[in-house]
Amino acid sequence: MDDTRARVRELVSELSGAPATDDAPLELDSLTIVTLIEALEDAFDVRFAARDANEDNFRSVAALAALVDEKRGAP
Amino acid sequence: MKVLLPARHGVGVTIAATGSYLPARVVTNDDLVALGAPLTPEEIERLSGIRERRWAAEDEATSDLAIAACRDALTRAGCSASDVDRLVLGTVSPDHASPSAACIVQHALGMGQSPALDVTASCSGFLYALDVAARAVLTGDERALACAADVRSRFLDMGDRATCALFGDGAGAAVLARCAPGEGISAIGLAADGSGAKSVYVPAGGSRAPATRETVERREHTIRMDAGPQVYLAAIEGMVETAERLLEAAGSSLAEVDLIVPHQPNRRILDRMVRLMRVPAEKMYVNVERTGNVSGATCAIALDQALREGRIRAGDRVLLLAAGAGYTSGAALFVAGEALVASAARA
């Protein structure tokens, strides 16, 4: 979980151009989110579905990391 | 998904010829930025794969583009408008809210009193038109025109990063004709899921919110795509699932398909489809870098261009594929006849 969060935080920071924290609300526009989805899929070997692309999952690094872990089947 | 299998009707329907029309005005990514797009030309190309698109001239409307595409298809088919029993036009940007753009096209072509109708299925417009026209041929028409045309450039908010660079204008058409059972079109499948009705939409100008000064000031007559990432993934899922289901219904598989001619929303979507469908990249026809997303007309234009470029040979199995707002989706599997391939070389 901690590893996932660290990598998600790194990717979000890189793509948004600003340092991200685990719980701060993410303010990403739709073009950045699409790029982030592709980056997360490559980094974690997971696949996002349309139903995953909702505000709840993209509200914070912690929420995104939890989704990624769920997709990876992590405990 | 509802699948039409012509073989079950004991009659065949084939694509006899195609045609297309793209407006003369080329709009590059630099042009868009000059018009106020809040992106750099490099960002547009990196994010969408689009380098240029065509926009209709000020005095051109959707019917003008459709007329040119239909004339092109009729010439290539070697028949006149009076030989055609029906016109089905897929569009979400008709000249007027009423009447249909199809009636304007029907009159201009000289189709006498043959019926003409619009079908509204957004980016799946050509597949929906093809289905309606094919059903008409299977139930008595000798020939029918399936056309799709859109001028979405009139409905763009140049301040919206998500949509301002994606759309181009254009039209594509196909002349459908009866053929021997078992030849031509093997299957057409359509689906809709209205839960996505507001995923990509034009909020005002209809009966829900008639155009007023306020709606225009709020730019509500332009295309809205508030859930872009969801639409991006839904378009891919829609096209991949529709392809799988259609091929299964037709008793075929992707391995038997020679060329996939998909709707071209943007390059990233097409690249992802290639990965998910596990097909070689060369099996998917791509022209998005030159035309952008031409909404319902995209698939028809791509088919016409693929034929003209010699990408389709006689006997090839071609899969047309589209998904769009609504949500709608559609697919068609056909075997390219010798006459179709020969017609593409005709001036």
Secondary structure layout plus pairing:
The complex is a heterodimer of chains A (75) and B (347).
Chain A: H1 2-16, H2 30-44, H3 61-72
Chain B: E1 2-4, E2 12-21, E3 25-28, H1 29-34, H2 41-48, E4 52-55, H3 62-77, E5 87-90, H4 101-109, E6 116-119, H5 125-138, E7 143-151, E8 169-179, E9 185-192, H6 213-217, H7 228-249, E10 259-262, H8 267-277, H9 288-291, H10 298-308, E11 317-324, E12 328-335, H11 338-344
Parallel strand pairs in B: 5-6, 5-7, 10-11
Antiparallel strand pairs in B: 1-9, 2-8, 3-4, 7-8, 9-12, 11-12
Account of the 3D structure:
The complex is a heterodimer of chains A (75) and B (347). Chain A has 75 residues and is an all-alpha fold. Chain A has one domain: Non-ribosomal Peptide Synthetase Peptidyl Carrier Protein, Chain A (Orthogonal Bundle). Helix content of chain A is 56%, strand content 0%. In chain A, helix 1 runs antiparallel to helix 2. The radius of gyration of chain A is 11 Å and the shape is globular. In chain B, helix 3 crosses helix 4. The radius of gyration of chain B is 19 Å and the shape is globular. The longest helix of chain B has 22 residues. Chain B has one domain: Peroxisomal Thiolase, Chain A, domain 1 (3-Layer(aba) Sandwich). In chain B, the strands form 3 sheets. In chain B, strands 1-9-12-11-10 form a 5-stranded mixed β-sheet, sandwiched between helices. In chain B, strands 2-8-7-5-6 form a 5-stranded mixed β-sheet, sandwiched between helices. Chain B is built from 11 helices and 12 strands. The relative contact order of chain B is 0.20. Helix content of chain B is 33%, strand content 22%. With 347 residues, chain B is an alpha/beta fold. Chain B starts with a strand and ends with a helix.
